[in-house]
Specification:
This protein has helices spanning about 15-20, 25-30, 35-40, 45-65, 140-145, 150-170, and strands at about 10-15, 75, 85, 95-100, 105-110, 115-120, 180-185, 195, 205-210, 220-225, 230-240, 240-245. By secondary structure, it is of the alpha+beta class. α3 (about 35-40) packs antiparallel against α4. The longest helix has 22 residues, at about 45-65.
């Protein structure tokens, strides 16, 4: 693959699935055989469309950076399942990327500065049973949640969860993380902090967090290893059969 163009910032791309689903056949054609097979295994149509749009737009955006056709983008996975570009080193010079999807949204992140992770989740409309999540929350987070009115607990829990998940994905360790051994701060003035991470194998890694606005009913977060560089947010739009990208 060709080298990417220099990118001095982290790019975040928001993809609204409902805007792209009318061209599902176009997105399907971008996927490779293994991705199509995986998509075919979804029994729920909404889940299948979400997966297809997520993979197709990821391929299109990576192809844009690499200056290759989307169909030629090839992936490998690390030991925990995090994808990276096939044949490319995973060190500081790599094109780092990560993706997440939930409900009607897909979120992609790209960086040449540092490893990145993203997570987006729909906020539950039902009350949160805090006791069910004691295994993934730090003591300070549990105390914070229990002090909130019940109507605010689901939103706060989701904000905590997406921050932890994004950071774990930036590290490349995903669900193997001891989430109760890490703690994030409340979101204040659009900012959030990783207060500590007691997972010994990654104690040398410093992560920074940035909550991402995905609209009412969703929580999302970007994490990167090291200081957070400039972040540019884009919306991914489609008109007819042509892909258009609009900066926010």
């Amino acid at each position: 693959m060709q080298e990417t163009k220099p990118m001095a910032c982290i790019e975040l791309w928001r993809v609204r699935i409902g805007l792209l689903s009318p061209a599902m056949a176009l997105h399907w054609g971008v996927l490779d055989a293994s991705e199509q097979q995986r998509a075919s295994q979804f029994r729920n149509e909404a889940d299948r469309e979400r997966f297809v749009v997520a993979r197709a737009t990821l391929r299109n955006l990576l192809g844009r950076h690499l200056r290759v056709r989307s169909e030629r983008v090839a992936f490998e996975n690390n030991a925990f399942g995090k994808p990276f570009l096939a044949g490319q080193a995973t060190g500081p010079a790599a094109l780092h990327f990560n993706t997440s999807h939930s409900g009607d949204w897909v979120l992609h992140a790209f960086s040449l500065q540092a490893a990145v992770g993203v997570d987006v989740e729909a906020i539950s409309l039902e009350p949160v049973a805090i006791a069910d999540y004691e295994g993934v929350l730090a003591p300070e987070e549990l105390q914070r949640l229990r002090a909130l009115p019940q109507a605010q607990q689901a939103g706060e829990f989701t904000a905590i969860w997406v921050a932890k998940e994004a950071y774990a994905k930036a590290l490349g360790r995903g669900v193997s993380t001891n989430f109760a051994g890490m703690c994030v701060s409340p979101c204040v003035a659009g900012r959030q902090q990783l207060l500590y991470d007691r997972n010994e194998s990654d104690s040398h890694q410093h992560g920074t967090l940035l909550p991402v606005d995905m609209g009412r009913g969703y929580a999302a977060c970007l994490a990167c290893l090291g200081a957070m560089p400039e972040v540019r947010i884009f919306d991914y739009l489609q008109t007819g059969s042509s892909m258009q990208h609009e900066a926010v």
